[in-house]
Amino acid sequence: MLKAADALFDAGYEVRVVSTCTAGWATEADAVIGASRRWRWRTVNYDRSTAPAAWFLSGSRHKAARVLTNVVASVPQSLVATAFGRVHRELVNAILAEPADLIYGGTAGAIAAVAEAGRRSKTAFAVDFEDFHCAEHASPEGDLSNDLARSVMRDASDGAAFATAGSDAIALACRDELGITAIPIDNVFPLPQIAPFIADGVHRYEEFAVYWFSQTISAGRGIEDVIRALGLTGRRATFTLRGCSTPDYVEALVTLAAREAPPVRIVIEPPIAPDAMVHACGAFDMGVSAEQPYVRNRELALSNKALTYPLAGLPVALTDTAGHRPLARDLGAGALVFAPGDPESLAAQMLPVMTDESRRAQARAASWHAAQTRWHWDHELERGALLAAVKGALS
Fold first, then answer.
1. Which of 59, 60, 189, 314 is 20 to 30 A from 384, alpha carbon to alpha carbon?
2. Domain tally for the chain?
């Protein structure tokens, strides 16, 4: 959505952004973003520390709606939307505060709000499925959330001027399972102003530096496979994890590394602003996107981390998932593809990159070439596809 706002503003549209505010570190990052953008911005704040009343009221309403939808056989779509999006009502009101010619929005909690605001104001609207929201939860406790998402996705796409999806695999699943036609637009980023340093592959550090980032550092993300793979290489390395973490999980990772990868140091870094992500990758030798297919959405998604590393010229360790395959194909020598739960395969592919200067240079060059030729925001299939869809909707 951030890139969409920038692209539409740069194309000459008047843009007003509506978003939520709920996490301290993200609020700080938002302040940096807001200071550098020229479009207008309104936030719906339900952060527990800064807006306790909104946090309590929205949470109570959200929980009550979920209970009702779980026990009543047939409920109105408005209640489904409230059960799915915690601040659904507040988002609708914020969107309707000013008139618009097109309402476009995404992330799980905003999809229903976009559709309702469009219908109430008789305004063209479009929705973005950055994830396959009806398959984001694998446990039985997540069945309700999946069912709510399925209903919301179908309802929001009904009458939409267009829908977009976060990967080719998500767009295909939308078509085959929900009957929704969606334009695949990946979460790619602009090419950096300065090309990454490829050179001849001479290693810059005593330790091979591996990088992974997300909003949350947690189990089920393939991190353990990477630690075991690094241990199998027998080489000194650092594995830097960026995101919000819990002490217990970090302690478990450090214990795992001490047992199965003694030469590997685990480093934890806090989240940073989106605009700084590509630059931050420059300090590393390889990026990791080890999505685990036991959650269907992660099988289909093409994560922002996987799309960030090539812009810094990093080879990428990728699990073999439907979402990753188009990127892995174009990365060529820059992709280290392995099956989830198979650290031996990853170790066998990593060792030459760690020890052979020519192989390392080949991998870096292939990754950067893929970024330049296909996997960047200004490509006609990314920013170009969005602008064409918006132009068609407004005409």
1. 314
2. 2
Q: Is residue 196 one of the residues assigned to a domain?
A: no
Condensed to tens digits (0 to 9), the pLDDT of residues 333-370 reads 999 999 999 999 999 999 999 999 999 999 999 999 99
In terms of domains, do 43 and 180 share one?
yes
In this predicted structure, what is the pLDDT of residue 205?
59
Are 220 and 359 within one domain?
yes
CA–CA–CA angle 213, 265, 195 (5° rounding):
45
Q: Are residues 156 and 295 in the same domain?
A: no
Average pLDDT over residues 160-178: 98
Cβ neighbour number for residue 18 with a 10 Å cutoff? 25
User: How confident is the model at residue 343, as a pLDDT?
Assistant: 97
SS3 196: coil
Is 254 a member of any domain?
Answer: yes
- Domain holding 57, by residue range, is 2-188+378-394
Q: Same domain for 244 and 225?
A: yes
189 vs 204: CA distance, rounded Å: 26
The alpha-helical segments, DSSP class H, found in the chain are 2-10, 24-36, 52-71, 77-84, 88-96, 108-121, 143-157, 168-173, 223-233, 247-260, 277-281, 296-300, 304-308, 325-331, 343-355, 357-373, 383-394
Q: CA-CA-CA-CA torsion for 168, 170, 173, 179, nearest 10 degrees? A: -100
Q: Assign residue 97 a region (left: φ > 0; alpha: ψ between -120 and 50; beta: otherwise).
A: alpha
Kindly indicate the confidence band of residue 138, based on its pLDDT and cuts at 50, 70 and 90: confident
